[in-house]
Amino acid sequence: MAKTNRRDVLRYGAAGAVTAATAVVAGQELASAEPPPGAGDPKNPLGGLKNVLDPRDFDEVFKGKKIRGLHNQRGRNELTINNRRLALTEISTLFVPADGSPPYVGVGWISALNHYDPVEIDSSRNREGLRKLARKVVDILGDYELADGAADEHGH
Amino acid sequence: MAVRKSITAMTVAEKTAFTNAMRQLKTTSVNGRNYNWYIDQHVLYFSRTSDNISHAHQSPSFFPWHREYMRLLELDLQTVSGNANLFLPYWDWTGSASPFTADFLGAITNGSVSSGNFSPSWGWSLYRSSIQTSFLQRRVGQSASRPTAATVTNIQSYQVYDQSPWNSTVSNSYRNRGEIELHNRVHNYVGGHMATREAPNDPVFWLHHCNIDRLWWLWQSSRGIDTYQPRTGFTAGVVDNTEAMRPFGNGRTPSAVRDITLLGYSYA
Ligand SMILES: [Cu+2]
Q: Which region is the signal sequence (chain A) (predicted)?
């Protein structure tokens, strides 16, 4: 339920920058003073969600595929490619930069598609992690779509 | 007694025997397993299982788990083909020889393997693909380069097998550096299905892992065969030296697979 509402907010709210920005403010207020999820307040279109619209969220076309990323709180981010969901798993891992700079430990996302190639989440040294992940997965998919199994969660 | 050869040393007849045995195992069960059983295990044991242990990846048992996994496949290929000399070949990806040729794993490396060996018309089907296609996908070299010989030398020089916290963050660890900088990188170098959770859909999975196992054996040969860590039976979340690895059952511990001569194969 919560996810559906969250998506609806993005779908309608992202139509214009002003609308989206307003929604961000509203969402932040809700996040601070809010009853637990599931409260069905008809005056509250966010339906009791703690989530806020995040300026890093995106809904765009990359290489012919519609990629959409939502940054939710507590790391429960969502990514869809042509409206098919890709489950993400966060792992702490050593990153070994290809340019020869020193390895470091960070947090990355893997999925069924980039299983051996974690994409670093946003941090002081990385920005736009979710969009980078979406684009990487589009490149792996080539002409094809995600299969249903890509939405299956798994822990690490 | 299988002698595992480099792909550069294989005859055409050996390549044909290998690919035919793979295709047979796709549609035939032997010893209670078929090819898709291997894909199931890879998907299942990539994650922490109900025992809250990472058996196959991002943990010390990465090397021994895959050693046992490959030993079973080699056995099944021998059984299904009736050829006791059938062996898993290894692909030393630091060299120039490619397994992606028409007479071996198929020559298409930039998208769908739509004809030739390991195409659907040849008799290869995908299982649990997270990409909606019936064609094996490869994108060789598009998102990563191969490890160089210098990288391999550097990894092989790590002296500590593994250490706490026993996961993918450990820096001074032969296991983790090998897993990330050699193993992961070649999965990404091949790309397509090799980049996915269901990577054993691509037969090159075995040639790659065979080389990883060979490197571990070389490392063991210089550092000591009985060097697996952790040794005790009480380390939370990981497989200790004398703890059974799932799904392989009782007695299939890291200790039990430490010596390849006792497992019935060698590297040429
Ligand atoms: Cu692998």
A: none
Radius of gyration of chain B measured on its C-alpha atoms: 18
- What was the ipTM of the complex prediction? 0.90
Q: Which residue has the higher pLDDT, A89 or B133?
A: B133
CATH code at B9? 1.10.1280.10
The class that CATH gives domain A56-156 is alpha beta
Q: Which residues of B touch A98 (CB under 8 A)?
A: 144-145
Residues of B whose CB is below 8 A from A156:
46-48, 54, 58
What's the number of domains chain B is made of? 1
Q: Which of B130, B143, B181 sits opposite A96 (nearest CB)?
A: B181
Mutate to test the interface with B, among A144, A145, A146, A153 (most CBs of B within 10 A): A144
Asked whether residue A16 carries a pLDDT value surpassing 50, the answer given is: no
**How far, in Å, CA of A34 to CA of A27, rounded?**
10
pLDDT one-digit tens code per residue, A106-132:
999 999 999 999 999 888 888 889 999
Q: How far B44 CA sits from the closest chain A CA (Å)?
A: 9
Confidence of residue A18 (pLDDT cuts 50, 70, 90): very low
Domain with CATH 3.30.1880.10 in chain A: 56-156
pTM of the model: 0.86
Residue of chain A with shortest Cα separation from B237: A156
Q: Which residues have a Cβ under 8 Å from the Cβ of A113 and sit 6 or more positions away?
A: A86, A136, A137, A140, A141, A146, A150, B130, B131, B195, B196, B197
Contact (Cβ atoms closer than 8 angstroms) between residue B243 and residue B52? no
